[in-house]
């Protein structure tokens, strides 16, 4: 029986990922053709170090990691001055709360980044446990973030559904033993996912109760085969 839902943050609750992609393209004066989203997307949902190094190699002119971080952060921040949650997010959180489910969040970003946006979106109060990069030695695809959330919620991993948008995030959730529902975005729709229970293009596609029923039925069929 599902007792909890655990959400990723970047790209799932708010589309910070496409805004960052646009920032890099603007900074380096590149078109999407010159920086293919399919390649870029493989660096999403984990530590930013590899992503910045990838972007640096795409630059036509020499640029240091420090300069890249500073300039891209300024552009990114400007694009997110008036954040909007993705379709269906509030409905899922409200539905989980009404159903008596525990609600967690597992993000590879730092706590200040996550909680600042959740506060702006008036969503912070929904979460019973939040784990970020500040709380673990290794972020996704390592399962530590999810393991921490599950431990703090006091349930078994199999009793939770993780909602993820990225490949690294889904690997972390599955490795931690959670059921995993993929909700793709404009960046991660280009990736090939494995081992998930259900895939959506938006939380508006299915109500939370229907998602939970499908996951539980799927697990029941696996046990009876």
UniProtKB/TrEMBL annotation:
Entry-linked CDD domains: HAD_BPGM-like
Keywords: Hydrolase, Metal-binding
Keyword Repressor: no
Origin: domain of life: Bacteria
InterPro entries in alphabetical order: HAD-like_sf, HAD-SF_hydro_IA, HAD_2, HAD_sf, PGP-like_dom2
Any Pfam family matching the protein: HAD_2
GO molecular function, one term: hydrolase activity
PANTHER family: 2-DEOXYGLUCOSE-6-PHOSPHATE PHOSPHATASE 2 (PTHR18901), PSEUDOURIDINE-5'-PHOSPHATASE (PTHR18901:SF38)
Family in the record: Belongs to the HAD-like hydrolase superfamily. CbbY/CbbZ/Gph/YieH family.
This protein's name: HAD family hydrolase
Organism, as annotated: Rossellomorea marisflavi
Organism placement in taxonomy: Bacteria, Bacillati, Bacillota, Bacilli, Bacillales
């Amino acid at each position: 029986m599902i007792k909890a839902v655990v959400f990723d943050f970047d790209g799932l609750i708010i589309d910070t990922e496409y805004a960052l992609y646009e920032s890099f393209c603007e900074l380096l004066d590149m078109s999407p053709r010159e920086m293919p989203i399919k390649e870029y997307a493989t660096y999403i949902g984990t530590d930013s170090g590899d992503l910045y190094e990838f972007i640096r190699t795409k630059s036509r002119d020499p640029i240091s990691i420090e300069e890249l971080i500073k300039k891209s952060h300024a552009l990114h921040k400007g694009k997110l001055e008036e954040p909007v949650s993705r379709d269906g997010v509030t409905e899922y959180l409200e539905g989980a709360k009404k159903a008596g489910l525990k609600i967690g969040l597992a993000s590879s970003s730092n706590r200040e980044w996550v909680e600042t946006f959740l506060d702006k979106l008036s969503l912070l109060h929904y979460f019973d446990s939040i784990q970020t990069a500040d709380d673990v030695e290794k972020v996704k695809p390592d399962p530590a973030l999810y393991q921490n959330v599950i431990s703090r919620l006091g349930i078994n991993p199999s009793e939770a559904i993780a909602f993820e948008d990225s490949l690294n995030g889904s690997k972390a959730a599955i490795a931690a033993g959670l059921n995993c529902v993929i909700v793709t975005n404009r960046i991660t729709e280009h990736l090939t996912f494995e081992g998930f229970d259900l895939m959506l293009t938006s939380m508006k596609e299915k109500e939370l109760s229907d998602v939970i029923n499908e996951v539980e039925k799927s697990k029941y069929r696996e046990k009876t085969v």
